[in-house]
Specification:
CATH superfamily of the largest domain: Alpha/Beta hydrolase fold, catalytic domain
Distance between the termini: 86 Å
Largest sheet: 8 strands, mixed
Helix content: 40-55%
CATH architecture of the largest domain: 3-Layer(aba) Sandwich
Radius of gyration: 21 Å
Number of domains: 2
Strand content: 5-15%
Structural class: alpha/beta
Length: 319
């Protein structure tokens, strides 16, 4: 055996050892809903049966509110992203939020379907199950995409719309969270189903904050642990394959309900320029841009962002 060939095999063996050690150190098995619920599904959480799933949901505030606020989270997030908003709103409004299929404690969609139309139908199925006819519907990122798509497809169910750094238009990210890159990379996305370094989650959460220093260990714990809910990692890969911004965005102009558009100026995932595009395409809309915030402004500075929502709701009530 030549010296060069021996060196090649030596390097190959070393690489195998390094990969094996990395996998061993970062092996993350799936967690069951039961394991996660003790920490992440405390009261007022409940689980309701919809389309073959046990949907993790919280329904707070006055039960006699005829038009609740429904809030939808984004990719790899959960209903907890709205905690501070709900605390500020539930004294006067009924607020409903739930983990979307493929995420949170709800977990994968049994049919494996994650197209935007399927998500919109799911939102309506939740409203039907709760006996709610009309809502103020809001969402962040993917949740914003689902919110406006639901408004287009089921206009009779939405009376006001809230878009927070919403997806839906084609865009090029200035900076993509590391976990999203892995989920869209062949081979690596298969490995991700078993291996998930906490550092990857930490870097991904920091990526969507305007000020990464605000990302606390407790916040990383939440994103990290819930992402290991059984089936979520595989569902993330399917979601990226099936739910991409694209042609459906031509229907944004069909929206006529009063719409509030909130955006972080420092959003490096979905560019702030799309806030103006939503504003131009939705005739009855207004925009608020937050100079120091990123892609999840409802978490980064819940007080200033929810105050903008409160003003919008008060103005609509006064009209």
């Amino acid at each position: 055996m030549s010296r060069l060939l021996k060196m090649f095999f030596a390097v190959l063996c070393l690489l195998v050892v390094v990969v094996a050690v990395f996998v061993a150190l970062n092996w993350q098995p799936d967690r069951s809903v039961e394991q996660l619920s003790a920490r992440w599904a405390k009261p007022p959480s409940q689980f309701i049966a919809i389309n073959g799933m046990q949907v993790h949901l919280r329904d707070e505030g006055p039960v006699d509110d005829p038009r609740p606020i429904v809030l939808l989270h984004g990719t790899s997030s959960s209903l907890h992203t709205w905690d501070a908003w709900v605390d500020a709103l539930k004294g006067e409004h009924r607020v409903i939020r739930f983990d979307l299929p493929g995420f949170g404690l709800t977990g994968p969609e049994p049919t494996g379907l994650y197209a935007i139309e399927h998500y919109a139908a799911f939102v309506v199925a939740v409203l039907d199950q709760l006996g709610v006819e009309q809502v103020t519907l809001g969402g962040n990122s993917l949740g914003g995409y689902i919110a406006w798509a639901t408004t287009v497809l089921y206009p009779q169910r939405v009376v006001q719309l809230i878009l927070v750094d919403a997806s839906g238009y084609p865009f090029e990210a200035e900076s993509l969270p590391l976990a999203f890159k892995i989920a869209q990379t062949p081979i690596l996305n298969k490995l991700m189903r078993f291996v998930l370094p906490r550092s990857v989650v930490k870097r991904s959460v920091e990526n969507v904050f305007g000020d990464p220093a605000l990302v606390t260990p407790a916040l990383v714990d939440r994103y990290f642990e819930i992402s290991t809910r059984a089936g979520n990692r595989g569902a993330l890969v399917a979601r990226f394959e099936q739910t991409q911004p694209g042609e459906f965005s031509s229907r944004v102009k069909e929206i006529t309900v009063p719409t509030l558009i909130l955006w972080g100026q420092l959003d490096h995932l979905i560019p702030v320029s799309l806030a103006e595009r939503f504003h131009q395409d939705i005739a009855n809309s207004r925009v608020a841009i937050f100079a120091e915030l990123g892609h999840v402004p409802q978490e980064e500075n819940p007080q200033v962002t929810v105050n903008a929502l409160k003003r919008f709701l008060a103005e609509q009530t006064a009209q």
